[in-house]
Amino acid sequence: MLPLVAGAVPVTYNLTFETSGQSIWNTGSSYTLDQTNFIGAAWQDQTVSVGGIIGEEDTNLINPLRVTYDVAFAACTGLGFSASTCINGQTAQVFVPALGSRPSVRSCGTWDFGCQLKRAGDLTRRAAYDTAYSACRLGFSSTVCINGQSAKLPVIALGSAPPQYLEIDTRTGAVIAATTDGRVGLEVGIKIDSGSVDAKVSYAASLDIPDTTALTVGSTLSFNPNSLLAGNNMLNTTFSSMQLSVDAVMELSGSIDAEACLALAGCAAGGTQFDIDERAPILGFNQDGEGGIEILGLPPSALNLPVPDGFPASMSVGGYADVTLYLPQPDATGGLDNASNTLKAHGQDDLVDLIVDIDNIVTSAAGAPGLLGGDLPPISIGALDVATFSYDIINVGMGPTIDLVQDFELDPTLWVTLAFDHEVEILGNLVTEFTSMWDLLPDITFLSDATIVTPTFFLTASLLNQTALDFDLNFIIDLLQIEYEFPQLQEEGVIGIGNVLNKGIDLFQSPDLYSRLFDLQGFNALGGDAFTIAFGTQSSLPDTTVTRVIDNTIVLEEIPAEIPASGTLLLLAAGLLGIPGAARRRQRRAMHDAEVRLVA
Questions:
Q1: CB 458 within 8 A of CB 523
Q2: CA dist 202 → 274, 339, 461, 544 (Å)
Q3: What number is the average pLDDT over the span 393-421?
């Protein structure tokens, strides 16, 4: 490339591009935002417990009967009685001498006087035996009388030894434990139709037309293009019609378990489980498309409330909800931000103020007064009530003040299409037309003595729309309160998980309802006067730098844009303000690198 000669003449085009009536939501002129946001609290494995149980179900204790038995058995055997006698016992018996067998009487001949004398002695002994036997038989058996018996003392039978240890239930006390998972709060649904954006983007686009009097055909020139956002730059949005719904959401699951024990009597358990999935309408606006208002799912007249006449509309249903509904018009107005070199606009307006008793609303809507608690059956051991308790799963009140916020950022890029009446060489290609970002216009090799160059300027622009609910929130939860009494232990009280959110919350960084970076279309193109690059003589300047508005018929090759996701995912990317700019820069570079509008 030849160095720029000292006689180069700067030329500046003052360019103004305008678009109007474009959608604020996406590329084109018609779009509907339909989003739902949850405002509330969610928790897992929240637990509470009170009390305790001591002792064991199977406790080994020394058997006092065994101790007594062992003492008695030792005393019995110490007196000389056998183990069998001590175990089985014995009755008392007196001494009985053994009579033996009945004496026999011998037989003698008639004349055997010696035998007869002895026989007389036999008869005497038998008579004495019979007398003694008859007397003995009055109190004893024939066996005892014949064989006799020794004297015996009475012994009480101890029987078999009882077990050395006893297994008994020593558990004593009571315990209540509760656990819960869930979420509770408000679900805000918002549907917004159309909405429009108007923008005006002004550039000062400059180039240097070199002195070509000393140059020859085939010289490569640089125009040193540069652009600056200057002049009248404007970004305005107009909000549109809206539908709004606010529902109370209550999803709760968990259990309450209680157990009470008395020593020797055993234990008994009781409790309950709950699984609640309820929602109830709080506020509806324009759901019918005709501007109607509903509170608690009913028109105000059905609740004997005056029908609102205009906005803000305030309504109160005692014990349930106080509502003030606004008609938000967060029209955004802005202009050039010199720090970012983009156009920015901000708009914010009131949406709704609420004070709601969610548990009261949900219970009434479900038609189940005991849905969130009550008395539980007592726990009994036999006929004895050992525990009574009641519970209240949740009390929750919310007081959100909700605004609708919109932030817009327009990032324009200036392009040019150069038409040549003779072929030139650009990036190694022979062309008669070339399209490029103005600031990245490459060097051009001119192959003719004189070449007429006609510029057409146009604009590409990306618009970032971030629409969010901005709210201050007073949120009080009294979670899982249990009232209990253990009459046998003379204990009573109240336990609870309490407030899972123990202070008011300012959720000024609430998740976006909508966040999208998209192409903003509808900008006009601007035709500039031609200038001539001539070698061996002075090149000519354009007759005027005033441009004329023409239809933009130039279509660039579509390059996939890196568009941030909507909602919570965008916030979790931890770079809400940095991501769109980086995406736009990568997109612009990719578009330019891929641009192949080289016309031979």
A1: yes
A2: 64, 17, 13, 18
A3: 87
d(CA 254, CA 534): 87
Whether the predicted pLDDT of 286 surpasses 60: yes
- The distance between the two most distant Cα atoms of the chain, rounded to a whole number of Å, is 205
**Helices and strands in the chain, H and E counts:** 7, 28
In eight-state DSSP terms, residue 306 is: P
Contact 526, 15 (CB under 8 A): yes
Percent over 90 (pLDDT), the chain: 20
346 exposure class (CB count in 10 Å sphere: 0-12, 13-18, 19+):
middle
Interval 414-426 mean pLDDT:
96
CA 416 – CA 441 distance, rounded (Å): 9
pTM of the model: 0.59
Instruction: Please list, in sequence order, all residues whose beta carbon lies within 8 angstroms of the beta carbon of residue 437, skipping any fewer than 6 positions away.
Output: 413, 414, 415, 416, 588, 591, 592
Report d(CA 494, CA 502) in Å as an integer: 19
Q: What is the pLDDT of residues 170-224, one digit of tens each?
A: 888 888 899 999 888 888 888 877 678 899 999 999 999 998 998 999 999 999 9
CA distance 552 to 522: 8
Where would I find the H helices in 203-280? Answer: none
Gap between the Cα atoms of 401 and 512, Å rounded: 16
Please compute the mean of the pLDDT values over residues 306-319 and round it to a whole number. 72
Q: Which two tokens stand for residue 142?
A: 């024939």
Task: Give me 421's structure tokens.
Answer: 């009446």
